[in-house]
Amino acid sequence: MRTCLVVLVVLVVVLGFSGDALSQKKPTLPKGWSKLGLSAEQKTKVYEVLNKHRDKLDMLKKQLAEATQERDAELFKLLTVTQKDELRKLLLKGLPDDKDKSKSEK
User: Fold this and answer.
1) Which residues of 69-100 are buried (b: 16+ CB within 10 A; e: fewer)?
2) Is residue 70 a contact partner of residue 7, using CB atoms and an 8 Å limit?
3) Average of pLDDT values for 59-67?
4) pLDDT category, 4, cuts 50, 70, 90?
5) What's this model's pTM, rounded to 2 decimal places?
6) Are 84 and 76 a contacting pair, CB within 8 Å?
7) Angle formed by the axes of helices 2-15 and 40-77, nearest 10°
8) In-domain check, residue 104
9) Do the Cβ atoms of 72 and 10 come closer than 8 Å?
10) 100 lies in some domain
11) Which of 20, 18, 8, 22 is nearest to 91 (CA)?
12) Is the pLDDT of residue 1 over 90?
């Protein structure tokens, strides 16, 4: 039980995941679209398309979050107690992950 709680905390810290993002009901224009000078009719149609696909996308986001949590829990089980403690400390500090490090080394 304690391991699950730690994994959840790690996910929240690493991913910045918030349930509020999934429950958002009012659609917003996609990034950059507000600068296109859309007519009122175009905006209405854009919002209709966004609403049409919202439930499916919300479901997929939830599935992704669950799969990520399951994966991270399995990975966490592979670590020794010392490694788990070290990982917690690193994640709480907000250190970059290995991908970020490898980019800077190139």
Assistant:
1) beebbeebeeeeeeebeeeeeebeeeeeeeee
2) no
3) 98
4) low
5) 0.53
6) yes
7) 140
8) no
9) yes
10) no
11) 8
12) no
Structural domain including 34 reads 2-95
Number of domains observed in the structure of the chain: 1
pLDDT of residue 94: 85
d(CA 11, CA 6): 9
What does the DSSP assignment read for 35-89? GS---HHHHHHHHHHHHHHHHHHHHHHHHHHHHHHHHHHHHHHTS-HHHHHHHHH
Is residue 23 one of the residues assigned to a domain? yes
Flag whether pLDDT at 10 surpasses 90: no
Residue with tokens 């709680």: 5
Determine the Cα–Cα distance for residues 48 and 40; give it in Å rounded to an integer.
12
Pair 59, 45: CB distance under 8 Å? no
Instruction: Identify whether 36 is part of a domain.
Output: yes
In this prediction, residue 26 carries a pLDDT of 75
